[in-house]
Recover the amino acids of this structure.
């Protein structure tokens, strides 16, 4: 559980995750440790109303390689992720949900797939077999289809699929700013425009390890509004202009082609 000189830092936003963290954190640390990878976790207590903060403290006391951040009030999903990413210092970073719907072993695979190509690619999962309701599955299909139509083929089928793992250099160039649920689409849209290869592989989406989902009907409305605003507004155009003026980011051999791989 030694967190000295970590190789990779993963950010985990936590909102009322007292039931999930005692399971997901040890599983992640054990999987990476067994493979000889020095992992650091940044757990962001994002205005939780339960015992999330106390659980994080107990995990730190147990020796897990955790850095704790506390936000009050809740800063939104994107705000929690960005707060954690802002303190990351390792060459490779990433973020994932605290609910354990993607296994620790698959998270480790995502890290292994990016080793040696950190500045040319990002890795992420595609939750192909999700334990969701029919309504949630339909919403996901419509949402991902709309993203592909409006943004011209993003190179990722499951836009919101996490973990997402990438280099610290990529993080700085992206200038991520979404403080709500649009953070994942913003990340994928910018990855495409930077010419990064998106390595997406299929995983089984398992049931939450505890707690309840924070995605509501209002979240879907928020997604739709942000998709349209970002597509037709000025924020993306301004960022693309700054990236262009800064010069080429990566070698553009076949980096705009998605590599769908099996672990």
């Amino acid at each position: 559980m030694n967190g000295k000189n970590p190789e990779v830092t993963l950010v985990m936003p936590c909102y009322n995750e007292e039931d999930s963290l005692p399971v997901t954190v040890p599983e992640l640390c054990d999987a990476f440790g067994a493979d000889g990878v020095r992992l650091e976790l940044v757990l962001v207590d994002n205005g939780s109303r339960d015992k999330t903060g106390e659980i994080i403290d107990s995990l730190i006391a147990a020796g897990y390689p955790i850095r704790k951040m506390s936000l009050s009030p809740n800063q939104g999903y994107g705000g929690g992720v960005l707060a954690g990413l802002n303190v990351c210092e390792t060459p490779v970073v990433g973020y994932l949900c605290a609910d354990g719907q993607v296994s620790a072993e698959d998270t480790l695979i995502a890290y292994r797939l990016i080793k040696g190509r950190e500045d040319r690619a990002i890795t992420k999962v595609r939750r192909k077999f999700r334990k969701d309701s029919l309504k949630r599955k339909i919403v996901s299909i419509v949402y991902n289809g709309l993203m592909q139509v409006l943004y011209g083929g993003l190179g990722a089928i499951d836009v919101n699929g996490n973990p997402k793992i990438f280099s610290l250099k990529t993080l700085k160039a992206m200038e991520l700013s979404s403080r709500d649920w649009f953070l994942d689409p913003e990340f994928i849209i910018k990855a495409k425009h930077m010419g990064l290869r998106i390595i997406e592989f299929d995983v089984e989406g398992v049931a939450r390890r505890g707690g309840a989902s924070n995605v509501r009907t209002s979240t879907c409305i928020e997604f739709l509004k942000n998709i349209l605003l970002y597509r037709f507004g000025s924020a993306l155009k301004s960022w693309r202009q700054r990236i262009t003026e800064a010069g080429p980011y990566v070698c553009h051999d076949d980096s705009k082609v998605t590599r769908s791989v099996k672990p």
Remarks:
- The chain has one domain: 8-261.
- The domain at 8-261 is CATH 3.90.550.10 (Spore Coat Polysaccharide Biosynthesis Protein SpsA; Chain A).
- Strands lie at 8-14, 39-46, 66-71, 92-95, 121-130, 164-167, 197-205, 259-261.
